[in-house]
Specification:
The protein has 416 residues and is an alpha/beta fold. 30% of the residues lie in helices and 24% in strands. The strands form three sheets. Strands 1, 2, 8, 9, 10, 11, 17 and 18 form an eight-stranded mixed beta sheet that branches. An eight-stranded mixed beta sheet has the order 5-6-4-13-14-15-12-16. A hairpin with a 5-residue loop joins strand 17 and strand 18. The longest helix has 21 residues. It is globular and about 65 Å long. The two termini are 40 Å apart. The chain binds flavin-adenine dinucleotide. It catalyses: sarcosine + O2 + H2O = formaldehyde + glycine + H2O2; sarcosine + (6S)-5,6,7,8-tetrahydrofolate + O2 = (6R)-5,10-methylene-5,6,7,8-tetrahydrofolate + glycine + H2O2. Keywords: Cytoplasm, FAD, Flavoprotein, FMN, Nucleotide-binding, Oxidoreductase. It is found in: Cytoplasm. Its EC number is 1.5.3.24. This is Sarcosine oxidase subunit beta.
Length: 416
């Protein structure tokens, strides 16, 4: 595998940057694999990587109907944090944050994980109570989170307007180890590392069916490049998870909504952290290119349109202008949407399914980027061992039948 050491970069620079190899191959699908993953987003690629690296399963294909990282992985606002309320969620997201901390070294690829802190603003009494509850719960789970007074909020993030607004800032919960990562680099890093371990990444190949044998078990997938056999199929198709799972006759407890984001023109470093406000609904950080990266809310209606309604973004910009009045003069460069798959309790599903050989990783809604390495890691375990890792054991499909919900819908500090 080619390396990106400083020495190598200098050597290539003197050679006009000729001779770099493609970072992954473009193989034709084989007739059969041990495992097929549907969807080359971060989660699917991470799963393939850990299948090869930790479980010695190299005969793996990741099948992607578009281009790798072109789904929600390449469309999100890159916020990473683990300060979720419930024990099950804290364990899952903290597992991911621990992997983020060593991911660039592990993949030998700079994913630009930047622990610049995630600051969640409280604007009313309910917010204060709820966030303090999060702080206590997180600390009991060994997850860093601390309460800041309004003055401490201002000191930590000076551009914020803390008083002269309709809902003044009454404090904030700060997770210092939270932050951002470069989403494309995450997809590329996992893709390169998986490819180098023998995983076939097959782009521009749509899965159109999941074939089951007489016993009901999975036999393989129908694709736009023909039938590909595999006894194990893992679905990591985000906004289209329910569509893909229906191909195997499994009805999922999911709804799909458009979720939007937008970026401003680039400016000099002006915003030091990630700020989230659920109450007035805005979240913002500054990318390393200088753009303000702004997340909006989901549309009110289900849709696969991959672009949301204009009033959703204008509402978010109203909130940003209140929070950071000097940004009123920033011009917005572009906006886009992704399709997010939302479960009734707003927690993901990472599980075996009632169909032997079929596994699913979905329901991440508006917040799965932060989980990418952790999710891929435990999903690989689930597929390799045919049983869940202790961390994802609670994240079953059956919880919606049995009532063991992980109800971050009411408890999460960000609107879904
Ligand atoms: C605007 C926006 C902002 C967000 N902000 C954040 C954030 O700040 N922090 C955070 O943690 N999360 C955020 N998220 C959520 C996060 O992006 C997702 O939860 C996460 O990226 C999901 O990753 P994935 O790999 O499962 O999905 P994806 O990257 O969407 O990958 C799924 C892939 O499956 C492919 N696929 C679908 N159907 C088929 C088929 N039939 N055959 C073959 N391939 C198929 C798709 O083309 C796609 O590439 C945001 C999402 C959006 C849209």
């Amino acid at each position: 595998m080619q390396t990106f050491s400083g020495l190598n970069l200098i050597r290539r620079a003197f050679g006009g940057h000729k001779g770099w190899q493609p970072q992954w191959r473009t193989p034709e699908p084989k007739a059969e694999y041990d495992v097929i993953i549907v969807g080359a987003g971060g989660h699917g690629l991470a799963c393939a990587y850990y299948l090869a690296k930790e479980h010695g399963i190299h005969n793996v294909a990741v099948i992607e109907r578009g281009w790798l990282g072109g789904g929600n992985t390449g469309r999100n606002t890159t916020i990473v944090r683990s300060n979720y309320l419930f024990d099950e969620s804290a364990a899952l997201y903290e597992h991911a944050v621990k992997l983020w901390e060593g991911l660039s070294a592990d993949l030998n690829y700079n994913v630009m994980y930047s622990a610049r802190g995630v600051l969640m603003l409280a604007h009313n009494h309910h917010d204060v109570q709820s966030f303090k509850r999060h702080v206590h719960s997180n600390r009991l789970n060994g997850v860093d989170n601390e309460w800041l007074s309004p003055e401490e909020v201002k000191a930590f993030c000076p551009p914020l307007n803390i008083t002269s607004m309709r809902y003044p800032i009454l404090g904030g919960a700060l997770q210092r180890r939270g932050g951002t990562a470069r989403h494309d680099a995450v997809a590329w890093g996992f893709a390169r590392a998986a490819d180098s371990r023998g995983v076939d990444i097959i782009q521009n190949c749509e899965v159109t069916g999941i074939r089951r044998g007489p016993s009901g078990a999975v036999e393989g997938v129908e694709t736009s490049k023909g039938f590909i056999r595999a006894k194990k199929v893992g679905v990591s198709a985000a906004g289209h998870s329910s569509v893909v799972m229906a191909m195997a006759g499994v009805r999922m407890p999911l709804e799909s909504y458009p979720l939007q984001a937008l970026v401003s023109e680039p400016v000099k470093p002006a915003f030091p952290t990630v700020v989230m406000s659920n109450t007035i609904h805005a979240y913002i950080s500054q990318s390393d290119k200088g753009e303000m990266v702004i997340g909006a809310g989901t549309d009110a209606y289900t849709s696969y349109s991959q672009r949301g309604a204009l009033h959703v973004t204008t509402h978010t910009l109203d909130a940003i202008c209140e929070l950071v009045p000097q940004f009123r003069r920033l011009r917005m460069l572009r906006n886009w949407g992704g399709i997010v798959d939302v479960t009734p309790d707003r927690s993901p599903i990472i599980a075996k399914t009632p169909v032997p050989g079929l596994y699913v990783n979905c329901g991440w809604g508006t917040g799965g980027f932060k989980a990418t390495p952790g999710s891929g890691h435990v999903f690989a375990h689930t597929i390799a061992k045919d049983e869940p890792h202790p961390i994802n054991a609670p994240f079953t499909i059956e919880r919606f039948r049995d009532g063991f919900l992980i109800d971050e819908a009411a408890a999460a500090a960000v609107a879904h």
